[in-house]
Please model this.
Amino acid sequence: MLPDIRLLILPLPDFALLPFGGFLDKLRFSADDEDYSQQRYCSWTVAGLNLDPIPSSSGAVVQVEAVADQLELASFDYLVVFGGRNAMATAALAPRYQALLRRAGKAGIKLVGVDNGAFLLAACGLLRGHKVVVHWRHEAEFRAAFPQLQVLREQLYCIDANRITCAGGTAAIDLAVALLSQACGRTRALKGLADMLVDETRDSRHALRSLELGAGQGRQVQRAHALMRHHLGTPLAVEQLAAELGISRRQLDRQFHASHGMSAKAWWLEMRLQQARWRLLNSSHSLAQIADEVGLGDASYLGKCVRRRFGCTALALRTGNNPA
Model:
């Protein structure tokens, strides 16, 4: 008996263990009738460009089972790429993976980019004409690198014909359930969730409550947060943001003061600076690039804002040589 769904799993160097493990464990629970890890109803093969172990971002390594180029690609329904921690470093792998991915696409295999895997697919020119979902932390960076692609906001994953993208994290479990549902039926797709201590699966358009910081927020403030993240790299005026919400700036500021103790402009600046801080610590981008990504104009202004907010220079923050 052939499995209902067959997946080729391709972890990239520095991949995140959480989406990788969650996705595979969901496949494992749905693969047989009991809990024997037998690949009956779905099967998967973890592969690489060679047989070398692949390090994850945590330092743990995964031993691949096969060399991808030596496999019969037509025997798989999906090729799932798990991206590395650094988005642009993942995109830079395109020359090494492009031939394999394009060959898989031509063979009719559905290509899946999990976490920063979307950066590799985009860099290989394989997402043209398709909607894309990326991790909210990397959305501005993706838009800057691939402005011609349509990025969906506030979504966990997107199934767009033969191209599928997923934000990563635990959303990989939700994506696995969706793919299994299509191939094996909903009952089998949900099998084992209780064992994984997952209460329920989330729809692709599920909005993360953990992104809505603070308690007692109104719907307008939550919508403002989503718009602020979406326009993070755009020097948009707060008045324009309020207009998108259908309220005045004064009303918006009043709601932010009630929920956050500061104006909408001050909160938006804080959001931008926290993203800039994260980029300084987790990328090699120049100050000018980061300033552009977070909508703070130029390197000089970003440097002043960083010093005022964090009490040190951007360089000190990046190297860890700061008082905080």
User: Anything to note?
Assistant: Residues 123 and 251 are 42 Å apart (CA to CA). Residues 5-190 form a domain with the Rossmann fold fold (CATH 3.40.50.880). The chain has a mean pLDDT of 91. The first strand starts at residue 5 and ends at 11.
